[in-house]
Amino acid sequence: MALVNTLRTVLATRQPICFWWGPDLLQFHNDDYLPILKDRNRQVLGQPFADIWSDVWEDVEPIVGEALAGRGTWFEDLPLHLVRSGHPVETFWTFSYSPLFDDAGNVAGVMNIVRETTDAVRHREALADEVSRANSALSSLMEAEKRQRVLQRELTHRMKNTLAMVQSVVTQSLRHAHDVKDGARLASQRIDALARAQDALTDSNWEEADVGKVAEAAFLPHCDERGRVTLEGSSFPLSAQQALGLSLAIHELATNAVKHGALSCESGHVRFEWWLNEVGAPSFRWTETGGPPVVPPSRSGFGSRLTTRVVPSYFDGHASIDYRREGVVYVLEATTRSQTKP
């Protein structure tokens, strides 16, 4: 009677249900269970569980054993690889296995209340992927906005530094000039030197510039085709402020050389060298030869203070200028390693 009553209950239920009965676990099911069989032989009533579901038997046998031991089980979205249309397919199932008892009260079978959740799992996975992509896109957008804010602050900071340098150049040029016209000319030339240094910085997003490019740009207005200027040195980066400072120093030295020094005559020559010393700090040397005899200036102007005090501060270093009779020698030595600075 237990088998008959169980079968009546299953057939009267609209939930997909099957059960297995007896030592061979013969299968019985209601009509709502038929879609679960898919392309399996529909004539499976009364056939052993292990034969009908041979592709997943090893996976579910321990679960069946629990139910046969009198302990009910329940699983949600359990992955099982079923053979469908001749190919193994990953599927997902929510089901419970419950013990069935015979008239004597002994476990005689297993009730399976089941629902395939493959589509629901796939939809959740697809939704999770979309959420992940949306979060990733949102994170990228937030990071881009953060970088933009940092860039804006950095540009503001560097513009303030540049404007402060320009203001100093203009103020000092006017203060030490013979008249306003002369001051305007000096300021304009020095600002042009800064502009050429900025061109070298533009290629690297205003973070650093190669020392050789800075030197070439600074010398460009003062060179002719007669090979009277020699530039020599290894390649290493200068920070934005160092590049601007070095450009100003070269401009001052070159302007004086054109007016009074080696570049004021056909036989004169200027050699500008740079290198990294034993601790990796930049060093620079300007040497003039073949020009008219050097006469030390009677007073120290802004150009002298610029090359020996202001510019060295950008390198955390020191500088000296030697007015030798045979030619001016300028030396700038940093005390810290070459590195990119803001």
From TrEMBL:
Q: What is the lineage of its organism?
A: Bacteria, Pseudomonadati, Pseudomonadota, Alphaproteobacteria, Hyphomicrobiales
Extent of the signal sequence: none
Name of the protein this chain belongs to: histidine kinase
Gene3D superfamilies hit by this protein: Histidine kinase-like ATPase, C-terminal domain, PAS domain
Q: Does the keyword 4Fe-4S apply?
A: no
Q: Name one Pfam family in it.
A: HWE_HK
* EC annotation from Swiss-Prot or TrEMBL: 2.7.13.3
What does it catalyze? ATP + protein L-histidine = ADP + protein N-phospho-L-histidine
Residues covered by the Signal transduction histidine kinase HWE region domain:
154-235
Q: Which organism is it from?
A: Fulvimarina endophytica
> What are the recorded GO MF terms, alphabetically?
ATP binding; protein histidine kinase activity
Q: Keywords for this entry?
A: ATP-binding, Kinase, Nucleotide-binding, Phosphoprotein, Transferase
SMART domains referenced in this protein's UniProt entry, alphabetically: HWE_HK
Q: Which domain of life is it from?
A: Bacteria
SUPFAM superfamilies in the record, alphabetically?
A: PYP-like sensor domain (PAS domain) (SSF55785)
